[in-house]
Amino acid sequence: MLRLFLSTVLCGCLVSLTQAQSSNGGLEYETSEPEVESSEGFQPSFKPTLTVTRAKGVVRVDGQLDEDAWSDVVPISNFSEVFPNEQSRPPVELSGRVMYDDDYLYVGIIVVDDPSQIRANLSDRDEIWQDDYAGIVLDPNRDGQGMYFIAANPLGIQADTFISPNNEDEGFDILFRSGGQITENGYQVEIAIPFKSLRFPSIDEQTWGITLWITRPRESRNQYSWAAIDQDNPCVSCQLGEINGIRGIRAGRNLEILPSLTGGGVGALRDAGEPASGFKNDRMTLEPSLNLKYGITSELTADVTVNPDFSQIESDEAQIDVNSTFALFFQERRPFFQEGSGLFDTDIQTVYTRSINDPIGAAKLTGRFGSVDVAYIGARDNNSPLLLPFEEESRVLEGGRSVSNILRVRHNFNNDSFVGALVTDRRLDEGGSGSTVSVDAAARILQKYTLSGQFVYSNSVESTDEELSKDVGDITFGKKGYTGALDGESFSGYAARVELDRGARYWSFEGGYEAISPTFRADNGFVRQNNDQSAYLWQGVTIYPEKVLGFVDRIRPNVLVGSSWNFDGLQKNFFFRSAVFVQLKRQTNVQINWWYREENFAGTQFDGMTRLNAMVFSNFSKRISLGVEAGLGESIARFLDEPEIGNSLEVSAWGTLRPTQRMSIQPQFSYSRLSDKETSEEFFSGYIARTRVKYQFTRHFFLRTIVQYSDFSKSLEIDPLLTYKINAFTALHVGSTHDFDQFSRPQGAEKYFRQSSRQIFFKVQYLFRT
User: Fold this and answer.
1) Which domains does the chain have, with CATH numbers?
2) Is the pLDDT of residue 36 over 70?
């Protein structure tokens, strides 16, 4: 995935913890590693240029690349390695071709490699990132503010992301066609991208930023690009090649109609605390919904959804929050809000679309006018959460029905620079409102440096419902002593942030300051703490010792130091972290962190807290990947009436097993314990175990089951799902959710599980596109 490369170029070293392994499905060929000329005298292609020609004839898009149209296209060659051996000749032979017609941009890529070593799994869309894959990066506006990455694995399984300077949107989906073939000499991929799926300038001849990209996971996670990439330059878009010659294309005023029908029924124990009370089943329900997308121009799109079913097909992973005083963050998984979400992402998160919880209807407008991006979201919500941030805790309440309006405008410059504004407003039916106005900017300086900043003004008017907020307690905040209860008070606040980053091959740093006033709230966002000022500095160096230590790709020692204090000048935190990250061969990563912390919590000063963390992850084979992380040290028992320091142990493990090319098993385990330093008596201990099992019958049809157990709540959840997916938008889902709680038998201490609730559902949707 390009995200892994971007983190390399900038300064990140960690790879994704949720990895999938691959298998070649038992393909065995008696072939040797292809012979490639030495890198001596090799000249990478910096900012190469290609003139694209029209396709002559019909293209089937099956991965064969055997149509006459392909034979007339000038091949792309001279790829160079991005990682681990930067700007060197790849050890395998790579070539590509690009052409177009009135409706599609066609891409063909051929990789000459040992077929027995290729990683390719039959999987769902967007689950190929640990396979071999090949694709194209497109920047139609050539400013780095919005790049498409469209790819396929050797079996033709699709994946796509949308890349902006601060975000890679993995939830982004477009319609395109793809095919793939594993051959006796390697593999080849064929992709057809409809111009209707892209946004580009309304001009007669297009000139776009481009590179072809290939990822080849072997001893290292090898990555290759047609346009040579200098890792000493963090601006990736500035280094893309260029294609021209595409003439006379128009995205047109296309219309997409996506009707869906959701049905199901729920049942639960009549008395939740009494397993013998009997099960009550509600009547089955049917809910139609309609989504419309209209391409007003090639750069402006409107979306409207009526009575949407925004339920998630897959449940959120449970999180351990026994010793946390702040609200938990959950990722947005709903496609309507995922698409284009990068434009709303800012360092101070004033937009968190899960604050629109259960909308009756919603509308979205996204587009570009020259170098200016514009985006709008409006929604009518049935049940909006209220996030109340305070200095040392936050509370989440049910706010009832609301109307939200969110507007984003951003003027883009070259080299990943921009200046923008963001306005949010939410009005509750029962009274109360929250609004924010934000300005933000980023400027790249001297190639390696980026200076960014944001300022937000907020205005909050509370509803009058002290019963709803009775559990908040007697919290007061601000110089005027506002109460934590919802008693109709109104107040304003601000938040500000400034940061300077340096991203380079050997030495990188990041330093910043952030302030969130005691009266700042972001009703449409996720800001869970206020009355806080903080400053920090991180820096690290990267060492590439492969010539000395052949089993090591890179080593990155780094340090982080920071402090925070409230608006009365009381220091709340001081922390120092020393860390080292080592990336080994066999795609194995090791990270060790040592922490020192001082904290003032609940009026008590806690000094001298230390902690050691270690993480190991290995993607060493096609069939198995494994990871484990452990932390041991001192932590504050925050949930006690009189908090104190305890001994903490946290362990997590995860992995992916692929018994066959079609099947994946992904177990996860998290354990946490906190005990008294003097007596070793446990304050708490427990674990959460989760396993996701999936079998892919065909490219479009799969069965998935999730089993999750929480030792903290003594609850078990089983979620089977059957899906037939024609493309990213046309699909049929049939599934259920079964919750089991633990009860005690009247005769003694014996424990047993009884189903406490269940839900059976189906969802069918079909995309019509004109």
Assistant:
1) 2-15+45-247 (2.60.40.1190), 324-541 (no CATH)
2) no
